[in-house]
Amino acid sequence: MAKRIVLALGGNALGNNLPEQMVAVKKTATAIADLIEAGNEIVIVHGNGPQVGMIQSAMTELVRSDPQRYIPCPLSVCVAMSQGYIGYDLQNALREELLDRGIDQGVATVLTQVEVDVNDPAFANPTKPIGAFMTREEAMRMVKEREYSVMEDAGRGWRRVVASPDPVGIVEIDTIRSLVETNHTVVACGGGGIPVFRTQGHHLKGAAAVIDKDFAAERLAEQLDADCLIILTAVEKVAVNFNKPDVRWLDTLTVKQAREYIAQGQFAPGSMLPKVRAAVRFVQSAHGREALITLLEKAAEGIAGKTGTRFMR
């Protein structure tokens, strides 16, 4: 049966630079086109870690070259830039793949703002490193001049750190829904979305933050009333005792089991933990909703129940 599916693409689906991305998106488009050809409605959320870092680093070098002329580019603007050029590659590759299969269906990228709560505790404890490495002197100057939070990063230099707040809502949700309901595949919430918070009147102000793309995909799936959230990553299934002799790959996970494994520290904070938490949130949000974690190339098999880790309420 056809489903409305939100796909969260892992970084391996995009590569680490422009040439890699051009190659990677063709493979990604083939796997997504398989799902569309089966009759499913697809909305795509992607990461932007290497890409937004590249943009931030380029902007930092620009400021270094002429600090009297240029000022640092806000992180929210860098996220918007990354959404634009990643979406450009994704929508073109997917449109080409669909047309090659005789499927005349629109593909569109929506530059998406995601609202966060200015009082989210994450803003009091920024932990997400971004941008170029700096000397200690440069970092302290940014603290003084720009009020940045900084940290020393594993002996490689100093970096800016920002908050990673929870997404509250998708600002462009009505636009995304309208596109889906008129037979478009949509690329949205790239890099977790452009983080914004409400100020006076109707103004939305960009936040110095990075939203986890798996949590943004989960919020989008809820607001779209999707049937399924599929989080695509570098492994076929979720595992406990990962990288140990007694590793165990999981076909299913109940909410209770997932919480027990989280409490045991089974999932790495920077990789599998947010994916498991996002999957749990989605299946809990309403009866009948499914979540799946698997490889990109196994997505169709996962929907058919043949592989991946399926989350159960």
Structure explained in plain terms:
This protein has helices at residues 18-37, 49-65, 75-100, 136-146, 173-181, 213-223, 255-263, 272-285, 299-303; strands at residues 4-9, 41-46, 106-109, 113-116, 128-134, 149-152, 158-162, 167-170, 184-187, 194-198, 204-206, 228-233, 238-240, 248-250, 252-254, 290-295, 309-312. With 313 residues, it is α/β, with parallel strands linked by helices. It has a single domain (4-116, 170-312), classed as Carbamate kinase (3-Layer(aba) Sandwich). Helix 1 (18-37) packs across helix 3 (75-100) and helix 2 (49-65) packs across helix 3.
**Element-level helix/strand string:** EHEHHEEEHEEEHEEEHEEEEHHEHE
CATH architecture grouping = 3-Layer(aba) Sandwich
Report the strand count: 17
Individual helix count:
9
Helix content: 25-40%
- pLDDT average, as an integer? 91
Flag low-confidence runs: none
Structural class: alpha/beta
Overall structural domain count: 1
Across the major sheet, the strand order is 3-9-2-1-12-16-17-15
Annotated CATH homologous superfamily = Acetylglutamate kinase-like
What's the quick description here?
With 313 residues, the chain is of the alpha/beta class. It is built from 9 helices and 17 strands.
Any key phrases for this structure?
alpha/beta, Carbamate kinase, eight-stranded mixed sheet, four-stranded mixed sheet, 9 helices
